[in-house]
């Protein structure tokens, strides 16, 4: 994957994780066609680049239709004070890339980002490629294979990576499901002004007191107002990893969780404002709005 950051001069500068030719770069170009993209190696580096004014936006993957959520980025959203200002959905079409002259039957190993390997697991097995090697990003795998002239290893990456690093495409569309879509988020130092004249989505994170039905009651603040939830993710609270429940028997230790929720409403909508006010006053021990931003309604 590539994290993209953007600078806002005549063009917008996007920070993305990985090497040129990765999917985050394509997502950044889809969201901001005239942006200048700047690759960086790690997810956290992209957050820091925007915070330190080295870039205007960071474009990072948040979830994939096959591989699920990118948990690292959920954790980083809480650690940093950036705001989600947009989303973009990108259809991911994986290719099997190798050095010139290498055939599929010569391959013993596939190298890529763990998410990409997971998205192609069945296909790689059917091709007889037994071993997997996880690296930081898809395009970085292609670059390494080209630089080291590996003859028994292929990269799972984009067709653009094949062009950039001079590799052959041995197979196209090798993802296990044709509908392989990654959702990316755009991050900025300041939030955008929410509107009600177009579809908006809002992302929040909150925690709750321990007790029967607490999550049910918390989510009811949205159901009662007919606000649709599109995503829910729970992550252990790193600052409070264990909660002790002391009843009349032996004390029990439970994980303390943070709940990440996306819902279809703008923070300019009084209905959404009332829902969050109800959640904060009645149920949540902690609540933070991560962003309220336009929904991506384009084709992936």
TrEMBL record:
- Localization per record: Plastid, Chloroplast stroma
Keyword Ion transport listed? The answer is no
- Under which pathway is this protein filed? Amino-acid biosynthesis; L-phenylalanine biosynthesis; L-phenylalanine from L-arogenate: step 1/1; Amino-acid biosynthesis; L-phenylalanine biosynthesis; phenylpyruvate from prephenate: step 1/1
Q: Which GO terms describe its biological process?
A: L-phenylalanine biosynthetic process
Taxonomically, the superkingdom here is: Eukaryota
GO MF terms here are: arogenate dehydratase activity; prephenate dehydratase activity
User: Which Gene3D superfamilies does the protein's record reference?
Assistant: 3.30.70.260, Periplasmic binding protein-like II
EC number(s) from the headed UniProt entry: 4.2.1.91
Which residue numbers delimit the ACT domain?
Answer: 203-294
GO CC terms, sorted: chloroplast stroma
Q: What class of enzyme is it?
A: lyase
| Role played | Converts the prephenate produced from the shikimate-chorismate pathway into phenylalanine.
Q: How is this protein named in the record?
A: Arogenate dehydratase
| Species, as recorded | Aegilops tauschii subsp. strangulata
């Amino acid at each position: 994957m590539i994290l993209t950051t953007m600078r806002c001069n005549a063009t917008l500068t996007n920070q993305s994780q990985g090497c040129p030719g990765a999917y985050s770069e394509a997502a950044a170009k889809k969201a901001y066609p005239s942006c200048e993209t700047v690759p960086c190696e790690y997810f956290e580096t992209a957050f820091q680049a925007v915070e330190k004014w080295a870039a205007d936006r960071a474009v990072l993957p948040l979830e994939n239709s096959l591989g699920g959520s990118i948990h690292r980025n959920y954790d980083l959203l809480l650690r940093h004070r950036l705001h989600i200002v947009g989303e973009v959905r990108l259809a991911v079409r994986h290719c099997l890339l190798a050095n010139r002259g290498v055939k599929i039957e010569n391959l013993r190993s596939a190298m890529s980002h763990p998410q990409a390997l997971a998205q192609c697991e069945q296909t790689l097995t059917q091709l007889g490629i037994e071993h997997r090697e996880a690296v930081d990003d898809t395009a970085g795998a292609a670059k390494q294979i080209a630089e080291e002239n590996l003859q028994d290893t292929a990269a799972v990456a984009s067709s653009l990576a094949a062009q950039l690093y001079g590799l052959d495409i041995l197979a196209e569309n090798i993802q296990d499901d044709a509908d392989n879509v990654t959702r990316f988020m755009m991050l900025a130092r300041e939030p955008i002004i929410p509107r009600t004249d177009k579809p908006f989505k809002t992302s929040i994170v909150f925690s709750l007191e321990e007790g029967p039905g607490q999550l049910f009651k918390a989510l009811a603040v949205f159901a009662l107002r007919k606000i649709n939830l599109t995503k829910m993710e729970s992550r252990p609270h790193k600052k409070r990893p264990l909660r002790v429940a002391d009843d009349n028997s032996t004390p029990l230790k439970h994980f303390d969780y943070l709940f990440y929720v996306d819902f279809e409403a703008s923070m300019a909508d009084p209905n959404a404002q009332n829902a969050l006010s109800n959640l904060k006053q009645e149920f949540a021990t902690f609540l933070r709005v991560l962003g309220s931003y336009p929904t991506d309604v384009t084709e992936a």
